[in-house]
Amino acid sequence: MANATRLLIKNGTLIDGSGGDPVPNRLLVVEGNRITLVRETDGSMPPETPDDRVIDATAKFILPGLIDGHCHISLHQGALPGVRYPSTAEFCSLSAAHAIGRVLRAGVTSIAVPGGKWFTDVTVREAVEGGLLEGPRMVVAGRALSNYGGIFDPDPYPAFEGTPADTAGVLCNTRDEFIRETRKQCKRGVDLIKIADSTWGDVQTVADDEIAAVVDEAHRHNVKVTIHSRGSTSTRAAAKAGVDLIYHADLATQADLDIIAKAGMPLAPVLTSPWIGVENGGAGRGLDDRVRDRLRAQLDTSFQMLRNARDRGISVMSGSDTGNASAFSHGRWHGKEAELFVKEVGMPPMEAIVANTSRNAWLMGLEGEVGVIAPGKLADIVIWNSDPLADITVLQRPSEISTIIKDGRVVDREAGGFRELPDELPRAVRPYRASPT
Ligand SMILES: [Zn+2]
């Protein structure tokens, strides 16, 4: 997939993703899918050849490709005219293939996908790896492991209906069922297991020993475990069980955060999705006032929890929850989390960039390989027209992107076998049961 020719990026300001100060870039060379040279000053320069592709980044800003640590690609399918069953495995795959193109063209060269329908996300990841589709690097979970009362056993559907394969959760109600599903998903090639506790965190639905059993099983398969955990006790249990990454954790107490800090795992608060719900939701989009009030409260507790977490040195990772529902359009919100980190939590802009690049590389299993620009690293690079350190909202505007390079290859932003769709499609409703996503 890499270029046969060399890419030479000349001039510009380099923000390398490590957290180091921005530096002037004289020349950056990409050969194959690797960065082979980064030079601030003239010094000895490799001779240019007619085959080189030269990119002039004068007055522009060279950053690692963004990494979204929470991006769904098969959770929600819009209601397209003429599509009768948008939730089939076949249609989910096509829809996800379309979505990842939008994600990549927003400057996001890697995503972690914590849950989706069928094994769509595994299949799409394989299609990208195999060169069939152009998309970001992906690590993916399967359907979230959820028991009665968990977020993916949603009201108002009675539990006896279970969770069909075209929903984003799979019911596991005993320790053995959690283990069995973990094993099955590992066999199918997931990179992550997603456990799903309750929607709002007011009760802990997954028992401590069930979380621990999943961690034990997944880790024997070298698969990371993530959890949707908002409540105090579930977050504490996840930390004690050695879950690799806790999503949300907004109701974690000071004592819970002490346990997380000691256990050493990061948190990914996922502020963007409740923010979208508060700012852009509404009765017409399925959010009544009561839900919006809860989301507003969730944001406030999240901001305070994050300040407390940062005081303890807990690593805060970035994820947008793009693709969660109809309002969470692919390609639109990936940079929002950085803005909320800066404006609401008090994180310095440089750290917000780190959280969206080198820090998230750990979740991709590519720590030290992507998310940082240096000789020897994989060439995932985005050149922006404006300085994200001066205005962090730049990262939300694909219109500010000059060039995207993924795996050493310049992304053709005009190409693609899929037509652009409107930003937001109406929610698809199946005849017998609405999608719970
Ligand atoms: Zn999510």
Report on the architecture of this protein.
- The protein has 437 residues and is an alpha/beta fold.
- Helix content is 28%, strand content 18%.
- The protein contains 10 helices and 19 strands.
- Strands 3-2-7-17-18-19 form a 6-stranded mixed β-sheet, with no helix packed on it. Strands 12-11-13-14-15-16 form a 6-stranded parallel β-sheet, covered by helices on one side.
- β15, α6 and β16 form a beta-alpha-beta unit.
- α3 runs parallel beside α4, α7 runs antiparallel to α8 and α9 packs across α10.
- The C terminus is likely disordered.
- The structure holds zinc ion.
- Zinc ion binds next to loops.
- The site of zinc ion has 5 residues, from loops.
Question: How does the major sheet shape up?
Answer: 6 strands, mixed
N to C succession of SSEs: EEEEEEEEHEHEEEHEHEHEHEHHHHEEE
Oligomerization status of the protein chains: single chain
How many strands? 19
| Average of the residue pLDDT scores | 90
**SSE class:** alpha/beta
Shape: globular
Count, helices: 10
**Ligand set:** zinc ion
Largest beta sheet: strand ordering: 3-2-7-17-18-19
End-to-end Cα distance: 34 Å
- State the share of residues found in helices, binned by percent: 25-40%
Poorly predicted tracts of residues:
430-437
Rg, nearest Å: 21 Å
Strand residue percentage: 15-25%
Features:
disordered C terminus, 28% helix, binds zinc ion, 437 residues, 18% strand, globular, six-stranded mixed sheet, six-stranded parallel sheet, alpha/beta
